[in-house]
Specification:
Layout lengths: L3 H4 L1 H14 L10 E6 L5 H9 L16 E7 L4 E4 L10 H16 L10 E7 L5 E5 L15 H13 L4 E8 L8 H9 L6 E6 L11 H4 L10 E3 L5 H5 L4 H14 L12 H18 L1 H23 L8 H22 L13 H17 L5 H16 L9 H13 L2 H22 L11 H17 L12 E10 L8 E8 L2 E5 L7 E6 L3 E5 L9 E7 L11 E6 L2 H13 L3 E2 L20 H55 L3 H4 L4 H26 L54
Parallel strand pairs: 1-5, 1-6, 2-4, 6-7, 7-8, 13-16
Antiparallel strand pairs: 2-5, 3-4, 9-10, 9-15, 10-11, 11-12, 13-14, 14-15
Helix pairs in contact: 2-21, 11-21, 12-19, 13-16, 13-19, 14-15, 14-19, 15-19, 16-17, 16-19, 17-19
Subcellular location: Cytoplasm
Main location: cytoplasm
EC number: 3.6.5.5
């Protein structure tokens, strides 16, 4: 083949194949290989066994090959076999090889004749083989047998297509001579994926079983049913020979004699037979590898670059260094601290553009999830008013209560504040879970550090709720309190009774008072709110102000001898604002009722006493106001407290205490002992890394002057019928043969470039 580099190409591909398989990855380099396809009993297994010179493949009826078998043949002075899944074990008895293939097949597929695309890797070393890599695939079938699924034909077809559709795969299409070659399943499926015939090699088996007086001379001479790469004929052992344990070497000698003595084949005998097929495949695979080298080199370099970072920590690994465990522990803790802080603070070197994590997710919990949990807290309005009513009654006891009691408000507020614990606990749990996820992203070796006294942290954070319960601050500047509103209003009275006058009004939860001025020193009148209602009044003819009326539902005088007083404002907006204030005090328009009245039935225990009803509404509004203040405070302080007590303390622990904690936890030797899985991963990663580097070196050593063998020119492949289209049977083109492709001039010989 020209130089040592070319001879090493197939072993190189084998090494890459093993390197990828050993770490559980699919070989995404699409390494050049030869896939063997054909129908059941076409003789595929016999061809492979003839290559090796040993009986080692399972045999029987139905589908025998149920998983792809990647067979790597390596020329060697000694003879033995190795399986990738049985590392270190050498098989010298090839009967044991067969049993291992059967056992490994059943391990994945079971014993019910099912199939699986997971390959079995077998390497055979022998002085009787040439370097060659083939993939033995299940034989195509049309009928399910035994427990096989009814769609077994489609399953096998899909499996074959997974391999042979790759441009890097040569197709060895095996067809028995005693069947109609034009209907060969192997050639049909090859034509689908390789319409130009650039990758298809024909193999004709069972030439000795043709009817007497017939031969396949025109086929083997590539005249009758031509392929670009032509056909090679072989004669395998018969079933009787196999059952009688006929030696394969004797069978190869008989094959040689058959071609030399047959009148139809003796002139092409040197181009027929298993040895020639093996040599031809070796050359074609080597040429194919060489032709794909530029693309393969590029992919190898990409793979090497992607592995560089992963193996960086392994390349200088010294297992015999006595200080390596201490160094590793120190570096691990330091790196963990840096990674954790970057994840929390958002200064990571690599930014995730697909998902939120770390500090970003905690921020979302603080400012989106936690406020939402507070807002969505639901309560039964009817039940709440009932509780307020009971509280008022219980505080008054046997006495008749004229005023709304403060204690009822405080009791209800505390009960509502206690309900805030649930969303706070949920917030704490969400933050802890996200911190755990962050630690897992940084490392899986010091997860215990995060859970350092989590209960204590949670109790400290919930101390905020206990603080709110300890003192109800009704002097808060945002609390509406029992004084609901202050402001100027005009009382419209007829001139006969003194005329309209402006006063300073103070609306509380119990009464409406008005004063001479804003200093509230000279009170003019105090009107209790019991049994009061509001109504709209028409704008006066001579007045530019807007007003509303207040009256007593029991037909009592409201002010002096007036059954109704009219209050006026400068704008309608001011009127609406004052009406809203009266609503908070429990004074409603004459036609309106509290929102919950329609839900109260005569059987309810809440009293329909108007005074109690107004007091319930007053406390209900006060509770809303105060809980709003508490919610605002908790929304602000909860993230700050969690940040201080949990997140910052976790960072401080990692930076200042974690190393000492780990040293005091036990024997550092055993703590840092490398697991068998990690050691295996390191070895396999380094093996693949060095295999990639070696592959690039070998590719670089290949002589740039090596001349490649040109691909044969196109041939007339019209005999291969097209697959039926989706059109109807009446389609005039339905079933026509392919258009004839006239032979073109053979391409010029090209030199391999290594750029």
């Amino acid at each position: 083949m020209g130089n040592r580099g070319m001879e090493d190409l197939i072993p190189l591909i084998n090494k890459l194949q093993d390197a990828f398989s050993s770490i559980g990855q699919s070989c995404n380099l699409d390494l050049p290989q030869i896939a063997v396809v054909g129908g059941q009993s076409a003789g595929k297994s016999s061809v492979l066994e003839n290559f090796v010179g040993r009986d080692f493949l399972p045999r029987g009826s139905g589908i025998v090959t149920r998983r792809p078998l990647i067979l790597q043949l390596v020329n060697s002075n000694v003879e033995y076999a190795e399986f990738l899944h049985c590392k270190g074990r050498k098989f010298v008895d090839f009967d044991e090889v067969r049993l291992e293939i059967e056992a490994e097949t059943d391990r994945i597929t079971g014993s019910n004749k099912g199939i699986s695309p997971v390959p079995i890797n077998l390497r055979v070393y022998s002085p009787h083989v040439l370097n060659l890599t083939l993939i033995d695939l299940p034989g195509m079938t049309k009928v399910a047998v035994g427990d096989q699924p009814q769609d077994i034909e489609h399953q096998i077809r899909d499996m074959l297509l997974q391999f042979i559709t790759k441009e890097s795969c040569l197709i060895l299409a095996v067809t028995p001579a005693n069947t109609d070659l034009a209907n060969s399943d192997a050639l049909k499926i090859s034509k689908e994926v390789d319409p130009q015939g650039l990758r298809t090699i024909g193999v004709i088996t069972k030439l000795d079983l043709m009817d007497e007086g017939t031969d396949a001379r025109d086929i083997l001479e590539n005249k009758l049913l031509p392929l670009r790469r032509g056909y090679i004929g072989v004669v395998n052992r018969s079933q009787k020979d196999i059952d009688g344990k006929k030696d394969i070497r004797a069978a190869l000698a008989a094959e040689r004699k058959f071609f030399l003595s047959h009148p139809g084949y003796r002139h092409i005998a040197e181009r027929m037979g298993t040895p020639h097929l093996q040599k031809s495949l070796n050359q074609q695979l080597t040429n194919h590898i060489r032709d794909t080298l530029p693309g393969l080199r590029s992919k190898l370099q990409s793979q090497l670059l992607s592995l560089e970072k992963e193996v960086e920590e392994f390349k200088n690994f010294r297992p015999d260094d006595p200080t390596r465990k201490t160094k590793a522990l120190l570096q691990m803790v330091q790196q963990f601290g840096v990674d954790f802080e970057k994840c929390i603070e958002g200064s990571g070197d690599q930014v995730d553009t697909s998902n939120l994590s770390g500090g970003a997710k905690i921020n979302r919990i603080f400012h989106e999830r936690f406020p939402f949990e507070l807002v969505k807290m639901e309560f039964d309005e009817k039940e709440l008013r009932k509780e307020i009513s009971y509280a008022i009654k219980n505080i008054h006891g046997v006495r008749t209560g004229l005023f709304t009691p403060d204690l009822a408000f405080e009791a209800i507020v505390k009960k509502q504040i206690i309900k805030l614990k649930e969303p706070c606990v949920k917030c704490i749990d969400l933050v802890i879970q996200e911190l755990i996820n962050t630690v897992r992203q940084c490392t899986n070796k010091v997860l215990q550090t995060l859970t350092h006294k989590p209960d204590a942290h949670g109790c400290s954070v919930l101390l905020l709720i206990d603080i709110e319960l300890s003192y109800i601050n009704t002097n808060h500047e945002d609390f509406i309190g029992f004084v609901i509103r202050r402001g100027w209003l005009t009382i419209n009275i007829s001139i006969m009774k003194g005329g309209s006058k402006d006063y300073w009004f103070v609306l509380t939860a119990e009464s409406l008072s008005w004063y001479k001025d804003e200093e509230e020193k000279e009170k003019k009148y105090m009107l209790p709110l019991d049994n009061l209602k509001l109504r709209d009044v028409e704008k006066g003819f001579m007045s530019s102000k807007h007003g509303f009326g207040i009256f007593n539902t029991e037909q009592r005088n409201v002010y002096k001898d007036l059954r109704q007083i009219e209050l006026a404002c400068d704008t309608q907006d001011d009127v609406d604002s004052w009406k809203a204030s009266f609503l908070r005090a429990g004074v409603y328009p004459e036609k309106d009722q509290p929102d919950n009245e329609d839900t109260i039935t005569p059987g309810d225990t809440v009293s329909m006493d108007p005074q109690l009803e107004r007091q319930v509404e007053t406390i209900r509004n006060l509770v809303d106001s105060y809980i709003g203040i508490v919610n605002k405070s908790i929304r602000d302080l909860m993230p700050k407290t969690i940040m201080h007590l949990m997140i910052n303390s976790a960072k401080d622990f990692i930076h200042s205490e974690l190393l000492a904690y780990l040293y005091s936890a036990g024997d550092q030797g055993s703590l840092m002992e490398e697991s068998a899985e990690q050691a295996q991963r390191r070895d396999e990663m380094l093996r693949m890394y060095h295999a990639l580097k070696e592959a690039l070196v070998i590719i670089g050593d290949i002589s740039a002057t090596t001349v490649s063998t040109p691909v044969p020119p196109p041939v007339d492949d019209a005999w291969l019928a097209k697959e039926p289209s989706s059109g109807s049977a009446d389609d005039p083109d339905h079933g026509k043969l392919d258009e004839y492709c006239p032979p073109s001039r053979a391409p010029r010989k090209r030199s391999l470039t290594t750029s």
